[in-house]
Design brief:
- The chain is 43% helix and 12% strand.
- By secondary structure, it is of the alpha/beta class.
- The chain has one domain: 3-Layer(aba) Sandwich (Rossmann fold), CATH 3.40.50.720.
- The radius of gyration is 21 Å and the shape is globular.
- Pfam families: adh_short.
- Keywords: NADP, Oxidoreductase.
Length: 290
């Protein structure tokens, strides 16, 4: 089974995938050239910046395919977390975050889909975030990019299934906070050169909370990787289970997703008697009660 793992320098514990995937398997790993790893016949390293132009991403994908002729599993784990208040951010901040976290992974996915369709099988693992389900101050742009990745993945899965490719599987992984070697929480918030003092207190509280949480998360990244690998292979704890389109990882992710779903269902229930009666030719019996 040929795995392609796309990882960004700011999520270094992606190397937890190495012992899990490379054992008696072939693994291709996209990783910055500044990092070095052990030599292995089952490990091939290629460098890819997911913020690169689409043409560059396509060329790198083809380079991966040239090694074996196929990629069975694509793991889109590349990304970084921009910590900035929404009003402090510029359009360039939004664009840079989405380029790395969404546009790049989408381009890499599209570059590898044709060979998966030609074989009528393949697996794509999208690494999302629980922050796209639970509003966290200073992570609005990051969460938005992960929410975009989720909706794109949901729709892509539907398109593939509806077009006769049900064996090209997509799983959207929504991790909790995990204790990685260089966690994204550890570096300072981005603040404008002339910040609005109205947000000074909030900025200070956010930075203090992030620093306190950094490297104190309860999640074990090795255990999380083991669950993903089991799910992809249909082995271990995933044996006998149906393929999951969604895979929340950790108690916090489960809790945040449950909370968001309850909020949405409550909103539907509270407004249903009003919003159910908006069709052009629909009876106004209920609408007249408004």
């Amino acid at each position: 089974m040929k795995f392609l793992l796309s990882i960004d320098i700011l999520i270094p514990h992606g190397l937890g995938f190495i012992p899990s995937l490379a054992y008696n398997r072939d693994l291709l790993w996209f990783w910055p050239s500044s990092c070095t790893f052990y030599s292995s016949s089952s490990l091939h390293l290629l460098e890819l910046d997911t913020s690169a132009e689409e043409a560059t991403i396509k060329l790198k994908a083809q380079e991966a395919l040239n090694l074996w002729g196929k990629v069975d599993v694509l793991i889109n784990n590349a990304g970084y977390s921009l910590k900035i208040l929404a009003e402090d951010a510029t359009l360039s901040d939004f664009q840079a975050q989405f380029q790395t976290n969404f546009y790049g992974p989408a381009a890499l996915t599209n570059a590898l889909l044709p060979q998966m369709r030609s074989r009528r099988e393949g697996t794509i693992v999208m690494i999302g975030s629980r922050s796209s389900w639970n509003p966290i101050p200073a992570l609005s742009i990051y969460a938005a990019s992960k929410a975009a990745l989720r909706v794109y993945s949901e729709t892509l899965a539907q398109e593939l299934s509806s077009s006769g490719f049900p064996n090209i599987r997509i799983v959207i992984v929504e991790p909790s906070g995990f204790r990685t070697e260089q966690n994204v929480l550890g570096y300072p918030m981005q603040v404008p050169t002339d910040p609005d003092p109205a947000y000074d207190s909030l900025r200070a509280r956010i930075q203090a909370n992030l620093e306190a949480l950094d490297l104190n998360q309860s999640g074990d990244p090795d255990k999380a990787v083991e669950v993903i690998v089991d799910a992809v292979r249909g082995e271990g704890r995933a044996e006998g289970k149906e393929w999951p389109l969604y895979l929340p990882l950790g108690r916090d992710a489960n809790k945040d997703i449950e909370t968001k779903c309850v909020k949405m269902l409550t909103a539907v229930k509270d407004w249903k008697e009003v919003t159910d009666y908006l069709d052009i030719n629909q009876s106004q019996a209920k609408a007249e009660l408004i």
